Amino acid sequence: MYLTVKETAEYLSISEKAVEKLVQQKKIRALFDGTQYLINKEQFNTHLRQMEKYKQLVEEILNEPIPEDWDVKDED
């Protein structure tokens, strides 16, 4: 499904100018049909799924218990 710049701005809760800037910087992939930019909505869904996976991975790492160090000696 393709969105216009206005629809994309509403979907991402940012301004239309910000969407246009991201398109110009090629941070958002878009097609130009001769009159307006069309942006594939699926690219955001993919990004959000990836971010969710990374978030889960970080949570797993942070929740992993710290192993007890068997060689803790004060050698001063």
TrEMBL record:
The keyword DNA-binding applies. GO terms for molecular function: DNA binding. It comes from the Bacteria. The keyword DNA-binding applies. Keywords: DNA-binding. Residues 2-50 form the Helix-turn-helix domain. NCBIfam families: excise (TIGR01764). This is Excisionase family DNA-binding protein. It comes from Neobacillus thermocopriae.
